[in-house]
Specification:
CATH superfamily of the largest domain: RNA polymerase sigma factor, region 2, helix turn helix motif
Distance between the termini: 49 Å
Largest sheet: none
Structural class: mainly alpha
Number of domains: 2
CATH topology of the largest domain: Rna Polymerase Sigma Factor, Chain: A
Radius of gyration: 19 Å
Order of helices and strands: HHHHHHHHHH
Number of strands: 0
Shape: globular
CATH class of the largest domain: Mainly Alpha
């Protein structure tokens, strides 16, 4: 098993901007070419005891796992812990793992469950009495800033926000989202429609949609 916490210096690769990521206020991770084999071929090789194949899967998907975990935890250290647990879970699936879809579709519920559990633990550990400090004065935000985009997304329900991010940040198809969340495809379409309508109606994001 690769040294999960120390790989890439213990940090996810620096993200880059993309059109869809800008729409929802997130970034896509940088992905290096790495092993040219597909996930299916790497899984088959790992099932046969090829440690390098598992390490290639880790390198290929670690940034995505960290970014997704951070989406739920809001804490980088917690996201790295989720990375560790997620690939420990995946390692235990070998040999014998049968990949019937994208690996990210398999890993998504693992990351989500682990990250939410971590977030609940962190909230329970917060002392009841804390010292409040007034935040420093901030300059007025310009239209279309990441802060404004984040604020618009917070206005969505968790289920609508999650579906939107799966579609436009993670790049899942409607059918893949349905399988990942365990809901009908029609429900996915409805959530996306409502989420995009919310973005169209908000002046802070209307311009990004070209409307």
């Amino acid at each position: 098993m690769p040294a999960l916490r120390t790989a890439a210096g213990g940090r996810a690769a620096t993200p880059v901007h993309s059109k869809h990521a800008a729409l929802v206020g997130e970034d896509r991770p940088v992905t290096s070419p790495g092993d040219p084999r597909s996930d299916e071929d790497l899984v088959a090789a790992a099932n046969g005891g090829d440690v390098a194949a598992f390490e290639a899967l880790y390198r290929r998907h670690r940034d995505w796992v960290v970014r997704l975990a951070f989406r739920f935890t809001g804490d980088h250290d917690s996201a790295l812990d989720v990375l560790q647990e997620t690939f420990s879970y995946l390692l235990r699936k070998f040999p014998g793992l049968v990949l019937t879809g994208k690996l990210t579709t398999l890993l998504y519920p693992v990351v989500r469950h682990t990250a939410l559990h971590s977030r609940r633990k962190a909230r329970r550990a917060v002392p009841l009495e804390t010292t409040t400090v007034d935040p420093p004065a901030r300059e007025p935000e310009r239209p279309g800033t990441r802060e404004e985009l984040a604020a618009v997304l917070r206005g969505l329900s968790e289920e609508h926000r999650e579906t939107l991010l799966l579609r436009f940040v993670d790049g899942l198809s409607l059918e893949e989202i349905a399988r990942t969340l365990g809901i009908p495809t029609g429900t996915v379409k409805s959530r996306l429609h409502n989420a995009l309508q919310h973005l169209r109606e908000d002046p802070r994001t209307r311009q990004l949609l070209g409307e």
